[in-house]
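Memo to structure team: turn this sequence into structure tokens by end of day. - J.P.
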Amino acid sequence: MDKHKNKIIWVIIFSVAMAFLESSVVYYLRIIYYPDGFKLPLKPIINETLIVELFRELATIIMLISIAVISGEKFWERFAYFIISFGIWDIFYYVFLKLILDWPASLLDWDILFLIPVPWIGPVIAPVTIALIMIICGIIILCFFKKGYELKPVFLSYIFVIIGMGLILYSFMYDTDATLTRLKQFEHKNNKI
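Reply from structure team:
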């Protein structure tokens, strides 16, 4: 087996295992804080637990960066492993939540996606779609490396990536409180019907 296949297999194994670990934490948090079910808007979590959660999320990103640095030799190769690992982790996180908690009921269910720097919220389909795109882009980059090509994006590519990432992050983080209020009103209205 060539070194690229070996590395990608171990990156996948790491990412799936990490996804199970993350979904296990969510399982325990839901038992403790949401025994009657997970619904938006959420009950507040006590400060100590919230601080631990923020550091757990930061640790998640550090772990994904670490596996990428260990796996790749050059910046873009490491970037490819990072986005592949991130994508696999994110998809399997929801796969394991479905297996453990039978949640989400559908890809249109809303979730708290991340907490740093503010809560990110959106339907599950959004991070899953982004994760699939990340995996595909990462595989394409690795294929270029395997064939001996160097990735040299032009300046305009960076501008488009920054704009795209900014729009995605903005859509998840913009006016979180108002979005949660609208979701509660929508849920309340549908429960009356």
